[in-house]
Amino acid sequence: MSDKHILIIGSGSVGKRHARNLAALGCRVSCMDPRADRREEMKSEVALVGSFASEADAFEAARYDGVVIGSPPHVHVAQTIQALEAGCPVLLEKPVCPDLPGALRLKDAADRSNVPLLMGYTWRWWPPLADVRRRLAENAIGKIVHVQFHMSAHLADWHPWERYQDFFMAQREQGGGALLDESHWIDLMLWLFGMPKSVSGRIDKISSLEIDSDDNVDLIFSYENGPRVTMHLDLYGRPHEKFIRFVGEGGTLFWSADPNQLSIGRSATSDWDRTGYSCERNDMFVAVAREFLSVLDGAPVTTCRLEDGVRVLRVVEAAREASRESRTIGIQG
Description:
Layout: E1 5-9, H1 13-24, E2 28-32, H2 36-45, E3 48-52, H3 55-61, E4 66-69, H4 76-85, E5 90-93, H5 100-113, E6 117-120, H6 127-137, E7 144-152, H7 178-181, H8 184-193, E8 198-204, E9 216-222, E10 228-234, E11 241-248, E12 251-256, E13 261-265, E14 272-276, H9 281-296, H10 306-325, E15 329-330
Parallel strand pairs: 1-2, 1-4, 2-3, 4-5, 5-6, 7-10
Antiparallel strand pairs: 7-11, 8-9, 8-15, 9-10, 11-12, 12-13, 13-14
């Protein structure tokens, strides 16, 4: 158990989740959010040391062992730099920010501060996906030829306690939209295969959702000596689906979130070798919290670094250019 004092910046859904998990691990928790209702919601779930309406008030009131940034992406850079300047290690929720220039500005500030930063691309801590990575490294299905990433989930179902139109995901200027928020899948692609050579595709708003951010992403990635990767992300689909299909020369590996399982098929028929998992979604957030606490105790950041988040933004920017210009765009590593 830890007795660290953690400031949670942003008291929405993910902020409250981090607060509950860190409190359960023994931490003292304070929060900052400009919305009084959000601060009251967090207070109803976690015994707070302090509750603040601004970053200035929060940092003036106390010294913190660490800071969690769980606010909308458009304010990530300014808030993270403030925490780093205060000497506080940071757990930064994804994405780093809405664009590559902002991510590079933060990277420069983090390098100068020499303060640790852990990125919150949480699927890296999901045991079934760790198994996927291990099996691919073991060449379980031979050379990988094609990979299909698929995420489909109706935005109105994400936070049923609020109007989806009021959720930051509905607002492009706040960093909402399928491409940025679901850049988890880009991060997983990079985690598994490294940086692709090029990207083509479309990023659009095609449904009747009342949002001004993108709700449909279809991308094709090419690797110099790796698989062809297709990626579909949308905010309008029901029922919700999350899966990755890996097709190799020796068979197919299929991971799905629901059911929570990993399947391998090596024959022409539907004869799958299935492995089921009992882990729950919050488990990966707890694992992130445990790594963050170990970083606060002096351990290095290992699972997901700021550099990983910057690489995701390099791919995002290339994908945006490919969509705007309707052509294939090379990606610089």
